[in-house]
Design brief:
Largest sheet: 3 strands, antiparallel
Order of helices and strands: HHHHHHHHHHHHEHHEEEEHHHHHH
Radius of gyration: 33 Å
Structural class: mainly alpha
Oligomer: single chain
Distance between the termini: 129 Å
Strand content: under 5%
Number of helices: 20
Length: about 475
């Protein structure tokens, strides 16, 4: 006798459940689920486009303001740097202040006052030395020498005052916490003012040494973002850096390549303007035309590419390089003996000897390669350091002052290492001499009468020997 099929209630049919089969209920399939997902996806794409538009608009606005400040003059650039340093310090010390507000508010006296006192002490020490150098290197400012000479004792007085006030605010019940805060303040000062101590020197050595590294880091940030967004994790699956999970190998490598190419051409572009290449000694808020003996690294020069380098390239490809000349023995080799004359190849019977390539470039372009590589491979670790701070304290951005970007630290974290390296590079490979005529006059005035006579006598001896 045939077995009857189980009777299933209509509501069980709709819900996909058979009571006598023991099978688990299946989730209901909604006919509108796919149609509901589409609007959600569209909303997500719209939000993403809005974020990109906001970020791009703010970025263009910052570049415009930056260009306007560069056009205004060196003193306005210095004011921009001073403003950024205040913002950077404020954002970084506020991280721990906000994180420990309940503990600080009523238990630690003068907490923020001591932090800002340390900041002002560090700023005075860092930049009063620069101001003293400006005075000694400019004969028109030598009437300010008594003030310049008091720079060191004033720095020490401020340092002593900061030490005393800090010690007086210590409380036995919170002394360990307070020392942690002091260490954090010192770390912030090292990371900000320590890296930016010589940025004013970069500005007065010529705006090129401030503009180029700044734009190099900006370009690397843009290029890495685009390469990471378009090619990220499609070639190299391995995570790049755990502290910054959104960073990819493709973005890091692609950004470095694009930045190096950008630096090669952008450095040549900047070298054509004296406003960028001329150093200044006299600070002024009024724009004046700059004239100077342009440093040779900003002038075109001819270079012969070593033939050993060209021989690495396959000959068919080497012959395609614009301006290259193939040098040959005149005629074919007979009995293993080469003809004595080497001339440009004109006949198929000529025997290849080497390639000759004479190129005209601006020497600063060679420096730009080094600066671009540093800005692409090392400077980003300033950003990774900032990411580690944000991850440690559970924050997304340091501030919200720049729409789509966050705070000043979010935008300028990579610039800090770059500015310090630019000063090191300039003093190592560009201008190694630190003496100048105004500085020598200043040092001469510090000599005793007997030393002045000896100095003049030695100078005359040197002049006669030449």
């Amino acid at each position: 006798m045939a077995k009857k099929a189980p009777v299933v209630a209509p509501d069980q049919v709709l819900s996909g459940v058979a009571a006598d089969t023991g099978t688990p209920p299946k989730p209901p399939v909604s006919a509108t689920s796919s149609s509901e997902a589409a609007p959600g996806s569209r909303r997500s794409n719209e939000v993403r486009r809005r974020k990109i538009l906001t970020r791009s608009s703010a970025g263009l606005a910052m570049v415009f303001v930056f260009a306007l400040i560069l056009y205004s003059g060196h003193m306005y650039v210095c004011l921009l740097i001073a403003t950024l340093e205040v913002m950077l310090f404020r954002e970084l010390v506020r991280v721990r202040y906000s994180h420990n507000f309940d503990r600080i508010e009523n238990t630690v006296p003068l907490f923020r006052t001591t932090q800002w006192m340390w900041f002002l002490t560090a700023v005075f020490y860092a930049y009063s030395e620069f101001c003293a150098d400006v005075v000694t290197n400019n004969t028109a400012l030598h009437h300010l020498l008594p003030y310049a000479q008091s720079q060191m004792p004033m720095s020490f007085l401020l340092y002593s005052a900061a030490i005393i006030i800090t010690i007086m605010t210590l409380r036995i019940d919170h002394i360990k916490f307070q020392f942690n805060q002091i260490c954090w303040t010192i770390l912030v000062l090292c990371f900000t003012l320590g890296n930016l101590k010589y940025v004013m020197h970069n500005v007065f050595n010529g705006l090129f040494w401030f503009t180029f590294p700044t734009m190099t880091v900006i370009m690397n940030d843009i290029a890495a973002y685009i390469c990471g967004m378009t090619c990220g994790r499609k070639i190299i699956k391995k995570p790049f850096f755990s502290l910054s999970p959104n960073k990819t190998w493709e973005g890091f490598i692609g950004g470095a390549l694009i930045t190096t190419v950008f630096g090669w051409y952008f450095s040549k572009f900047l070298s054509e303007y004296m406003w960028m290449t001329c150093p200044v000694n006299m600070p002024t808020f009024f724009q004046t035309k700059l004239e100077c003996d342009v440093n040779e690294i900003f002038l075109p020069a001819k270079y012969i590419i070593p033939e050993q380098v060209l021989e690495i390239i396959p000959r068919p490809l080497a012959r395609m390089i614009p301006g290259i000349t193939e040098m040959c023995y005149e005629g074919a080799c007979a009995d293993g003996v080469a003809p004595p004359d080497i001339v440009p190849c004109v006949r198929e019977a000529d025997t290849h000897h080497h390639f000759h390539l004479l190129v005209t470039i601006v020497p600063i372009q060679l420096h730009s390669v080094i600066l671009s590589v540093f800005g692409s491979l090392v400077a980003p670790f300033g950003g990774f350091f900032a990411s580690a701070i944000k991850r440690a304290y559970g924050i997304k951005d340091f501030d919200s002052i720049i729409p789509g970007h966050g705070g000043a630290m979010d935008r300028f974290d990579c610039q800090l290492l770059m500015m310090l390296y630019t000063w090191v590079h300039y003093n190592t490979f560009v201008k190694m001499a630190t003496a100048s005529v105004p500085k020598m006059l200043y040092m001469y005035n510090l000599l005793s009468e007997g030393e002045k006579e000896e100095f003049i006598q030695r100078i005359m001896e040197v002049a006669k020997a030449r």
